[in-house]
Amino acid sequence: MIMNNCFRIDSDSIRLEIKAVPGASKTEFAGVKDGRLRVRIAAAPEDGKANAELINFLSKSFDCPKRDLRILAGEKSRLKIIALPLECRARVEGVVGE
What we know:
The chain is α+β, with helices and mostly antiparallel strands. Helices cover 21% and strands 37% of the residues. It has a domain at 23-85: Conserved Hypothetical Protein Mth637, Chain: A. The chain has helices at 49-61, 89-96, and strands spanning 2-3, 7-9, 14-22, 28-33, 36-41, 70-73, 79-84. It is globular.
C-alpha cells in the first residue's frame, strides 16, 4: 500500500480523503489541509446535491467515469472517503502531489 497525506493506494483502488465545503460559489480544489483534500462545492448539503456535485467534479477532474467513483464513508458528513479506480493514480497525484 502506498500512502500520501490525503490518499492511499490499495491493491484495488485509490482512497481519497476529502473535506467537503458545500455552499461555495464555485466547485474547486482548495488545497490539502490536515491530511485531507479540501474541495469547495457549489451546491447545498441537502438531498444529496453536494455529494452529486462532488462526484461529478471529481469525475471530470480525474477523467474517470462517475460510475467508478464511490463514497465509502461520510455520506452525510463533510469528511469523506472516496474510492477511485487505480487508473486515476497519475491524475490524482497530479492534483494533490506526492
